[in-house]
TrEMBL record:
Family (UniProt): Belongs to the TonB-dependent receptor family.
Name of the protein this chain belongs to: SusC/RagA family TonB-linked outer membrane protein
Keyword Signal: yes
Membrane topology: Multi-pass membrane protein
């Protein structure tokens, strides 16, 4: 199906004519006079640069020195005072011509406006679970990803991040609700644009983030909302004098923790004690700290943001430019990014029509670490007695040992780079109609272009031509063949395009004590993904061609070389059509009822299951409105709410997923000789494949006590996912191929969330506000079978370390959580110092153990509690914020440590200092088992910021000036023995540290915030 844009082109033309044809009435009434005065805050400090406008006219000005203002108005006119971070103030002009106006800071309360799907609501009118984080409350620091900004801020949002500036954080909301990798992330909506890429926004552009956690709040987004929805609202222009602001910082980062590996002297002493010695090929008299050689001693970061905003009551605008650069702590890695944004809002037709246009563009340049996890592993295991380079300047290598590579050489002799250009434009029109109706039209266009290049020079093709690739779990290690003269190069270029049209009609009507809000709408989305190609080449004339000149190679001169056109990436066209409706009913602001439904159609699923329905219902009771709570001063707000809804998950699927596909399945023989091109079915058709469905029941209480000094909420939820999408082995005599993807299985998440915010101290010169949030979730697989397909359990994650062939780490099984560890149970050591393990019968053995047969269930990677605690202190012009975050009760399988625990091979690979008292005769020491299953709990001081705001009006033309310093990751309290306990808790292989750590850093920033009138 194709959309006909003729209607929309005509509509757009009419809107543009209205925009340019709108006239401005500037006639002055005869009775107007000059109204002047001062605008102050509640501490009698002047507000400079605030907007001052006469309501219903185009007259607007801004406050100057000492908060002074002057504007023409007449008796009865209303003058509106607005300033970012303060409540809007309205003044009615009377007989006086001079006024002193007090404006108060905005505070969080149940009257706050919350962004919901296709509209807004007050928090007091909500029946569902929604958390809000204001822009000023987001995490600060050298942050390249929005996930880091939200860490610890929202209960139920489990975010784990790498130290790599080019890796996005893993975000899981209220527990994993799918068994598919890449399908667990929440849906992002930016200023109403569904599925927008969050990388197009700089942190300084974000005004607030609303997190829709339960299905009743999220189901209005249908088959993409099972993982929750994150609504991002960007900053808008405010009427008044043009405001120019600059926010910037410079930072320095260093590694916060290292593995304590043996140096040359310690290693020689250990070997001598065990009657062993290094081979001449490995003992070159060096004492190399390979972690120091691979990592930067200091990495630099910087961020600069310039914004401009202003306008009149009819027209407002805002624009910003952001530049961010961060060096990775691993040498040669880093991120360089430029973001530009512009937004315009225009009112017309006597303010009945509002047109909005926003355009954002992000350009990033990421230097990646080639064979990242392999280099991280080699920097720990490479012997300290080996030098980085030989005396002649060439890189040292011992090529006799297999899977043994100089990590500095790997870094310096390869280059991987990813360039991304991302543009998002959206045009919206809001028209107020009679009888309480409003009509909205939103049109958006998103285009993302990715260009990747990799070049591995002759060092790789001659020395590392069978290099071990160690991907992140659950993928298993493989060996990659790199052949050809003077290196091998890879180049690809792909783009994704997304076009969205959404239109909806809203009705707001009040009948006495009855208040109704209703929305009905339509959505159309067309996505064109993976439009591009990939190619490879080798046999270059010189060793430094790189990936920019593939045509200089001669790959076909290399026997059996095949140009890689990336068959795993296929062009996709995804169409989605949706209808949706929602009704909110409010009686006396006391009793609340909400109901919604969305009908989604998509071409990615089976032809019999392309349409789905996603309903929700919710109810609330504002108990504080009852008479029995009227005459008391303890309880300010109290609300009971409950909801139930169903949302879907269609992430990670393409239109070809359900189709019968043929491909190359090997060779066929003719007259005894093999021939190329045996073709057969490689994927079965499933016309009944549909999206996964998640149903959530949520019950919550919101409260505010002691005149608003203490407020919070408690939520209980029960989230069940059905129709899990799992590949099953099938009988090839009944199906063309041996595997079929089908909807089978159920899993659940149940939990509690608690939020408490308070203001223990508020005086004229000193204030302290604090907030804590806590979340507990229990994840469990209910079943992986039905009447047709059956899986009792499935083993996952095979790190394949030396001597551990076939060993797996986790199991998917009914009654167990995702990330359940299933491995050998450690039983100490025997009299000879050899590690022992329990077999299935409970006998202690050193040999003869069988994979799986002798495995035990030994805990899981799911945390029992997530905690965030923020504190903000102000003393006169000083401000101090401290944020701590904790993860409790989870397990981590420290595969990295297990693979290092090899005293018997210390003459070939380095070992940690902690191994010095182990017996070299222990041939079992490194076996994956409960010995290396560690407690992953930690408490981290995530952020501490100290700032000083100079007195307003101190410098002419400067509205505000603040200097600050920030420290990130100051300390971590943990018993975990790896680099850092914050191991990825997303995906289907959470909590596995298998050389996939990228060292965390400790960061110190020095920044400046300044705005000009």
């Amino acid at each position: 199906m194709r959309i006909n844009f003729t209607i929309f082109k005509s509509t757009l033309l009419v809107l543009l004519l209205l925009f340019f044809g709108q006239s401005f009435n500037t006639a002055y009434a005869q009775t107007e006079r000059k109204i002047s005065g001062n605008l102050l805050d509640n501490t009698n400090q002047p507000i400079i640069g605030a907007s001052v406008a006469v309501k219903g006219t185009t007259k607007v000005t801004s406050t100057g020195a000492a908060g002074s203002f002057s504007i023409s108005a007449k008796d009865g006119d209303k003058i509106i005072f607005s300033f970012l971070g303060y409540q809007t103030k309205e003044l009615t002009v009377g007989s006086s011509s001079t006024y002193q106006v007090i404006i108060t800071e905005a505070t969080s309360s149940l009257t706050d406006v919350v962004v919901v799907g296709y509209g807004k609501s007050t928090r007091k009118a909500l029946t569902s679970s929604i958390s809000t984080v204001k822009g000023d409350d987001l995490n600060k620091g050298a942050i390249s990803d929005v996930g880091q900004m939200l860490q610890g801020k929202v209960p139920g949002l489990n975010i784990s991040r790498s130290g790599d500036p080019n890796r996005n954080a893993a975000i899981i909301m209220r527990g994993a609700s799918t068994l598919r990798d890449g399908a667990q992330s929440p849906l992002f909506v930016i200023d109403g644009v569904v599925g927008a890429d969050i990388s197009i926004l700089a942190p300084d552009d974000i005004a607030s983030i609303d997190v829709l956690k339960d299905a009743a709040a999220a189901s209005i987004y249908g088959n993409r909302a099972a993982n929750g929805v994150i609504m991002v609202t960007t900053k808008k222009g405010v009427a008044g004098q043009t405001q120019i602001a600059y926010n910037g910082y410079f930072g320095i980062e260093n590694v916060s923790n290292r593995y304590d590996m043996m140096n040359a002297e310690q290693l020689r002493a250990f070997l001598a004690k065990n009657n062993s010695a290094l081979t001449p090929a490995n003992d070159k008299g060096a004492d190399t700290n390979w972690q120091n050689e691979v990592q930067r001693s200091n990495a630099m970061s910087q961020n600069h943001n310039i914004s401009l905003s202003g306008g009149t009551e009819k027209t407002t605008y805002n624009a910003s430019v952001n530049y961010f650069k961060q060096q990775g702590i691993i040498k040669t890695s880093g991120l360089d990014r430029f973001i530009g944004r512009i937004g315009v809002e225009q009112k017309a037709l006597n303010d009945k029509l509002k047109l909005s246009f926003n355009l954002s563009n992000s350009v990033s340049n990421a230097d990646l670490v080639p064979y990242r996890n392999t280099i991280l592993s080699q920097m720990l295991t490479y012997l300290p007695t080996a030098p980085v380079k030989n005396p002649d300047g060439s890189y040292f290598d011992n090529l006799v040992q297999t899977s043994y590579y100089n990590p500095v050489s790997m870094l310096e002799n390869a280059k991987e780079n990813l360039k991304n250009k991302n543009i998002l434009g959206n045009l919206s029109a809001n028209l107020k109609l009679p009888f309480g109706f409003t009509y909205d039209v939103n049109i958006s266009y998103q285009n993302s272009q990715n260009v990747y290049g990799a070049f591995y020079n002759s060092i790789y093709t001659s020395r590392y031509n069978n290099v071990r690739n160690t991907p992140d779990p659950p993928a298993n290690p493989t060996f990659v063949s790199l052949v050809g003269q003077n290196g091998v190069a890879i180049r690809n270029a792909y783009q994704n395009t997304n076009k969205i049209l959404e239109t909806y009609l809203t009705w707001n009507k009040k009948f006495g004590d009855h208040d109704i809000n209703a929305v009905v709408g339509y959505s159309y989305q067309q996505s064109l993904n993976n439009d591009g190609f990939q190619s490879t080449s080798t046999n270059f004339p010189v060793n430094n061609v790189g990936y920019n000149n593939l045509s200089l190679g001669n790959p076909y001169a290399v026997s059996d070389f095949r140009v890689d056109f990336n068959p795993g990436v296929a062009y996709q066209e995804i169409l989605m059509i949706s209808d949706f409706a929602r009704v909110n009913y409010n009686y006396k602001n006391k009793f609340l009822i909400q109901g919604s439904i969305r009908r989604d159609g998509s071409n990615v699923f089976g032809r019999n299951e392309q349409w789905g329905y996603f309903p929700s219902v919710g109810a609330g009771w504002n108990i504080d409105q009852e008479n029995f709570l009227k005459n008391q001063n303890v309880i300010r707000t109290l609300k009971l709410r409950g909801s139930y809804g169903i949302a879907g998950n269609s992430l990670g699927f393409a239109p070809l997923t359900t189709k019968l596909i043929y491909g190359q399945v090997g060779q066929f023989y003719y007259n005894g000789s093999p021939r190329e091109g045996a073709y057969g079915a490689v994927q079965n058709e499933n016309p009944d494949l549909r999206w996964e469905k998640t149903a959530t029941t949520n019950v919550g209480v919101d409260f505010g006590l002691l005149n608003g000094r203490l407020n919070g909420s408690v939520d209980w939820y029960d989230k069940k996912t059905t129709d899990l999408i799992i590949p099953f082995d099938v009988d090839p005599t009944l199906y063309p191929s041996s595997s079929l993807t089908a909807n089978v299985g159920k899993l659940s998440n149940r939990g509690l969330e608690f939020v408490l915010n308070g203001s223990p101290v508020i005086t004229e010169n000193f204030s302290w506000t604090t907030g804590i949030n806590l979340a507990h979730n229990v994840n469990k697989v209910i079943t992986l079978s039905d009447s047709q397909f059956n899986i009792d359990n499935r083993l996952t994650i095979t790190p394949d370390g030396a001597g551990q062939s076939g060993a797996s780490l986790q199991i998917l099984a009914p009654g167990q959580a995702i990330g359940t560890f299933f491995t050998f149970k450690y039983a100490g050591k025997d009299a000879n110092g050899v590690s022992q393990y329990y077999d299935a019968a409970g006998n202690i053995k050193t040999q003869g153990l069988l994979n799986r047969t002798d495995y035990y269930i030994l805990g899981n990677a799911q945390p029992k509690a997530l905690i965030g605690w923020s504190n903000n202190i102000k003393y006169k012009n000083f401000d101090l914020s401290i944020f701590l975050r904790a993860v409790l009760g989870n397990k981590i399988m420290n595969v990295t440590r297990a693979d290092l625990f090899r005293p018997s091979t210390a003459q070939f690979t380095n070992i940690p200092v902690e191994v010095e008292n182990e017996s070299a005769a222990d041939f079992n020491s490194y076996k994956y088992s409960s010995r290396f299953l560690e407690n992953g709990s930690y408490l981290r001081l995530d952020n501490a910021t100290l700032g000083y705001t100079f007195k307003k009006g101190l410098i002419p033309g400067v509205n505000s000036l603040r200097l600050y310093t920030t420290a990130n990751n100051l300390f971590v309290i943990t018993g975990y023995k790896g680099i850092d306990p914050e191991i990825n808790q997303g995906g289907t292989a959470p909590g596995v540290d298998t050389n996939n750590f990228y060292p965390k850093t400790r960061t110190f920033l020095f920044g400046l915030n300044v705005s000009f009138n």
